[in-house]
Amino acid sequence: MRVSTSDITGKKKGSGSNDIFEKCRNFTRPSDLQSAGLYMYFEVFGDREGCGAGEVRMGHRKVLMFGSNDYLDLITHPKVKEAAVQAVKKYGSGCSGSRLLNGTLDVHVKLEAELAAFVHKEAAITFGTGFQANYGALSALTEKGDVMICDHNLHASLVEGALRSSARTVRFRHNDMDHFERSLENCPPEEKIFIVSEGVFSMEGDIADLRGIMKLAKPYGARTYVDEAHGIGVLGATGAGAAEHLGVLDDVDIVMGTFSKSLASVGGFIAGERSVVDYLKHTARPFMFSASLPPASLAAAGQALQIMKKEPERRVHLLRIAQLLRDELRSREFNVLPGETAIVPVVIQDELDLCRLCKRLLEEGIYINPVLRPGATQNLLRISCTAAHTEKHVDRLVTTLVRVAEELGIER
Ligand SMILES: Cc1ncc(COP(=O)(O)O)c(C=O)c1O
Q1: Whole-prediction pTM
Q2: Is 131 in the pocket of ligand 1 (CB under 6 A)?
Q3: What band does 94 get if pLDDT is binned at 50, 70 and 90?
Q4: Is ligand 1 within 6 A of the CB of residue 369?
Q5: Which fold has domain 78-310?
Q6: Which CATH superfamily is domain 36-65+312-408 in?
């Protein structure tokens, strides 16, 4: 005889509060937005065949993409695609195992050496994603008796790493060096200090005061960790990120990077002193207990790194376009947050206005991500520039934005 859920629980399936799935059925925020025609997530993109620079396909339409982190426009670069194809031909589609056991290829070792040299460190270790790199490194490197002093606006992967660690965590107000200094002063002398920041903050696009951090950290013997997910490829004389841009790259103890943005692939890395990297290889759980990066991802990232080094003009063009966009939007009285990176965030106070604006822009053939609180400290139209964008694209975006914002009665 079959026993139904109601037999076991004494209640009808799903109707009782002791059903673990009850919360899922009551979670209506996405469906509420969908019913209002304002849901902007999980949009489906198609192939890029026949798309022009800066364009992506959505259904039968070509859409101007201002929401991608492919900062150097390398995802569809023929050499990057070819490197991935050749890697699959040579090595196959995957490694089917962890680096520790059966998943280390010569291409892992080669790319790690190149990445380490690129960010001026002794050694590097690659992870399946940037998220895993942050989560794995922070949780492995700190223990009870340590303190992690973190900027308030950290990416979820860093926050999760800090939560997983048994170290004490202190958060200082975003980029506030006075508050940072007080956080340092308040640490008992026996605590070992680890300072964690992003180089470029992912949502607001501003640059961390790494000079201030380094200067204040030194007398405490504190170690420093900088996530350069949005800095690599964008900032610095060689594209090594915000720390290079501010002249403190050699002072940073650990540089973290991801392949999912300027490096046109998927994966993440941590670079630092060799003993630290070796320690992570044997203690970072997302590294030890997860399959290694597949050959195609490594080859694509490796090729993107070569192009990044050889073609600094991509970075120069990207920053010029982003600055042009900031200037044009400000001249039309949009509230653009200060910054000098590829991320151009426009404050749109009202959440519904922001969703409406993004929907209307999409109808007009322009894709931009809305970032809603608490994803950022304010509701933001997070415009993301890439090296594929031209002055014409900027002009189209600004003209359309002005018209649509007026049409919807959105305050600037
Ligand atoms: C600052 C920052 N760190 C880490 C990550 C995670 O990188 P990945 O996409 O490689 O997991 C992201 C991605 O959005 C990010 O913005």
Answers
A1: 0.94
A2: yes
A3: very high
A4: no
A5: Aspartate Aminotransferase; domain 2 (3.40.640)
A6: Aspartate Aminotransferase, domain 1 (3.90.1150.10)
